[in-house]
């Protein structure tokens, strides 16, 4: 009788452990972030949007990029927090080979539960 009770206890413990591990690795909660950006400097006429698309695809983030009438580039990035962080670094420090980034401004950063944009593209 005691052995049976111990088996149940160990089985219960095992099931509880599996449930906890599954909950920790599941898609529950905020697993993505979204952020808007504006990049200032010599960022138009230097293939900045094209390189931005390529970097976004390489990192696996979604969003869009667009030139403004003020000579800046704006857009939005969505994805896993670490990948969005890498994209923010690229937008603020790297850019296209011919670009000269003076500064990048990031606003409206927020957690999201699912990606709201499919792919990454240029808007006009």
TrEMBL record:
Signal peptide (from-to): 1-28
Top EC category: hydrolase
Keyword Signal: yes
Keyword field contains Signal: yes
GO MF entries: acylphosphatase activity
Record InterPro entries: Acylphosphatase, Acylphosphatase-like_dom, Acylphosphatase-like_dom_sf, Acylphosphatase_CS
Domain Acylphosphatase-like: 34-124
EC number: 3.6.1.7
Gene3D superfamilies in the record: 3.30.70.100
Active site: 49, 67
Keywords for this protein: Hydrolase, Signal
Catalyzed reactions per annotation: an acyl phosphate + H2O = a carboxylate + phosphate + H(+)
Family designation: Belongs to the acylphosphatase family.
Protein name (record): Acylphosphatase
